[in-house]
Amino acid sequence: MALLMNSLVRLLTLSFAIIEIMKEAMLYERLEEKKVRCFLCAHGCHISPGKRGLCAVRENINGTLYSLVYGKVIAMNIDPIEKKPLFHFMPGSRSFSIATVGCNFRCEHCQNYDISQYPRERPELAIPGEDMTPEEIVKRAERSGCGSISYTYTEPTIFLEFAYDCARIAHQKGIKNVFVSNGFMTPESAKLIAEYLDGNNIDLKGGKDFYKKICHARVEPVKETIKTMKQSGVWVEVTTLIIPGYNDSEEDLRGIAEFIKSIDPAIPWHVTQFYPTYRLTDAPRTPIMTLRKARQMGIAIGLKYVYEGNVPGEGGENTYCPSCRELLVHRLGFSISENKIKNGRCFNCGAMIDGVWVNAV
């Protein structure tokens, strides 16, 4: 009996320890029978006790919703800000980039599926990652001389509690905060993080059918997040990975370009090259001509800045003045060889160039 009691005590102690290292989730409500409804992202999961949401990193433990990834850093790197991609946000600067495992999407073509889908595909295993505090993240960013912290690689919405705590401290230190996101948020979560967010690259992947078939999600919340971020004063850039046979029709691309213009024609649009990966291997790499046509279409529709991505050396990644068409920023991949933007203006005609140029290199 004594042995049994000791075992029970150890088990209870371990259980409480597990809860202590987790973080109670933001943005949820308690329902009857200890169920909860999460409104962190647009899925709005109703979660029963002992179950997780679609992101697989938020669990209902006895009627309380917990984040399983708080402080569990699975990836940490120093990146050029252009890699996000953000071309009009502190160009030439470096960004301290972090991620946890998990995602609220199940994209068939995910480039980082090994970490984004980890908790969904390995639910029996413990959540991996290096335990770190928000203070440690900000200190590392400071020591590395980075001008910003990017919450990236996987979907930062699913580790919002950790990103939010990091962002508040970084903001106090004068370090900027960047999301690289699928935008599938709720108005509540978007407004919450926007208070401390400076830049956001949001994927606008395609139309309704593409989101339903390839991402297992919906496009409408993404568009709402783009609107919310822009209205909140966050610098926004939009990326569309063009996949032959899936979202490369003129109708799809025109619809995206016209939507961006309706929000703000100064929002940069990145049309990037797809290569086969994960479960979507039946489509070829995107032809450069397709990217070029998309770029020309965006400019013709009235977007001021359109870029071709994942094809360095083709010229479509350079920034031109929308007024006089002078070359302002010459890029090769993630590197800048020349930047002629002076105090946010074109060196030639003096036109204002939209972006965040403070502390730019």
Mean pLDDT reading: 93
The biggest beta sheet reads:
8 strands, mixed
Number of strands: 21
- Stated plainly, the CATH topology is called TIM Barrel
> Which architecture would the CATH scheme give at its second level?
Alpha-Beta Barrel
Sequence-ordered SSE layout with sheet pairings:
Blueprint (H helix, E strand, L loop, with lengths): L1 H20 L1 E2 L3 E3 L5 E3 L7 E2 L10 E4 L2 E4 L4 E2 L1 E6 L13 E6 L13 H4 L1 H4 L8 E2 L2 H10 L4 E4 L8 H14 L2 E6 L5 H8 L4 E5 L4 H8 L4 H12 L3 E8 L7 H14 L5 E5 L14 H14 L4 E4 L9 E2 L6 E6 L2 E5 L1 E2 L2 E2 L15
Parallel strand pairs: 9-11, 11-12, 12-13, 13-14, 14-15, 15-16
Antiparallel strand pairs: 1-6, 2-3, 3-4, 5-6, 7-10, 8-9, 17-18, 18-19, 20-21
Give structural attributes.
single chain, disordered N terminus, alpha/beta, 30% helix, TIM Barrel, eight-stranded mixed β-sheet, 21 strands
Could you explain the architecture of this structure?
With 361 residues, this protein is an alpha/beta fold. The chain has a single domain (72-346), classed as Aldolase class I (TIM Barrel, Alpha-Beta Barrel), CATH 3.20.20. Helices cover 30% and strands 23% of the residues. It has ten helices and 21 strands. The strands form six sheets. Strands 8-9-11-12-13-14-15-16 form an eight-stranded mixed beta sheet. A three-stranded antiparallel beta sheet has the order 1-6-5, covered by helices on one side. α4 (134-143) crosses α5, α6 packs parallel to α8 (220-231) and α9 packs across α10. It is globular, with a radius of gyration of 22 Å.
